[in-house]
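Moderator note: this is an archived Q&A kept for reference. The question asked for a predicted structure of one protein chain; the sequence and the answer are reproduced below.
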Amino acid sequence: MNLLKIIVYSTKTPFMKTFVLLLSILCLGTKSFAGDLPESLKRLPEFSYKQYRDPKVKATSNMVHITFHNDQGLLKNQKVKIALVSKTLTIQTDSNGVYLQTIPRGKYVFRAWLDDMHNEITSDTILFPGGNRTEINIWFYSSIERVICDKPVVYVYSDSVQEVSLDLKVNGDFIFTYPQYTGAYTLTTNPSGMLEYQGVSYPYLFWDAATSLPESCKKLNTGFLIQRSELVPFLEKACNSMLFNARERSDFITYWAPRMQQFEQVYLHFLFNDDCNAIARYDVQPRPNQFFRVYMSWCDGKGIDAKALLPQTFPQISGGGLRFVEWGGMEFNKALLEL
């Protein structure tokens, strides 16, 4: 349940009645996003508006056309509660997330907030002229900066054909899964590493999700600062240090290296094994003999002092029997670093 309040303060002269518009909007039942890049990651302006003459609007009034968005998209077909001065109304946005309100012409400061998990919106003083329509777009972004955990892939190996149950809980919202995740996977594994699920073979399981960057990734004390020309050799060395096999190493490097080469230098920080639980947790039955996970967070390394970084040590994949191996990563905005 999301609480949204909008306050419009009038700055009319003392000879005219002060108009205060208080909208307390209770947004119910917002849907989780899946399949598309979340609007919270597109990062549109938090507040925008445009105005134009409308002959249907009285000269003493302004028709305000408000479209509400949050991290998950449009707040459409939502029951909302509005308190206008002392009168409370329950309304509903339309299928486009729009609500219309006629207000007296004047100058107003527009403020809006959704809940403690989203940024508060405050406009400058805006003139709402009579005989005009004002179209406002409001985007509520999570106050917890979100990132995409890209392409975590899961390989499962066994010494013989074996049935395995794998359940996944993500600290965030799935964007895409393949095969589609609708609950715990029931897989058939074999020594080749191919996984059979519902009669179809897969080389690995795939997912990505919008999540929060773990605090340990923001602390600029461990990791690596790598020049563009050294990226591939560095990633090869890292994969070999972790004892990735040829397929895992090739999958990892061919996915990440082309993306990282947009920067002259790249800052990298690794999360290993239990530290990855800040992003996602697995319940695998029977419990694997080897459970190995690595997530790599990275950003533009320009301006970062390599001398401030202690190199990380890479753990290794080992052992036989049932083996679980996962890698993934997150590109993030350098502004999140605690410099």
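Archived answer notes: Residues 1-43 have pLDDT under 50 and may be disordered.
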